[in-house]
Amino acid sequence: MTKADLVEEVTQLGDLTRRDGETIVDTIFDSVIHALRSGDKIEIRGFGSFRIRQRKPRTGRNPKTGAKVDVPAKRVPYFKPSKELRDLVNPKNAVPEPGPEEAKAASNNGGEGHPAA
């Protein structure tokens, strides 16, 4: 989903103009960014929380040249989904989709289950 898709959802949900929907989405994003910049934690019940994590300085490596590079300390945004959101994304009674290995094994079953040509 893109920002434009989100604006469209808000616009249809509230029977608003596209400009109003865009203003609402922009205001929410700006509020989240402003709160994170000032060091606040944002908690949206049933959805999750946003906060800033401090990364320590470290020595990295340039993958092209192999030279060592000093990477400075920095603050990075972090999102932690709520239990409710995790449960909605991963329902307990859902059958898991086959991963790449299971799909590969199923396609290499020697032609079983397929009509003969």
Low-confidence stretches: none
Strand composition percent: 15-25%
Secondary-structure-derived class: alpha+beta
Span between termini: 42 Å
Q: Going across the major beta sheet, what is the strand order?
A: 1-2-5
Write down the overall mean pLDDT: 86
* Outline type: extended
Tell me the series of helices and strands, N- to C-terminal.
Answer: HHEEEEEHH
> Helicity, in percent?
40-55%
What is the CATH third-level topology name of the largest domain?
HU Protein, Chain A
User: Using DSSP, what is the number of strands?
Assistant: 5
CATH architecture of the largest domain: Irregular
Tally of individual domains? 2
| Major sheet characteristics | 3 strands, antiparallel
Query: Which value, in Å, is the CA radius of gyration?
Result: 23 Å
CATH superfamily (homologous) name of the largest domain: IHF-like DNA-binding proteins
The level-1 CATH class of the largest domain = Few Secondary Structures
Q: Helix count, per DSSP? A: 4
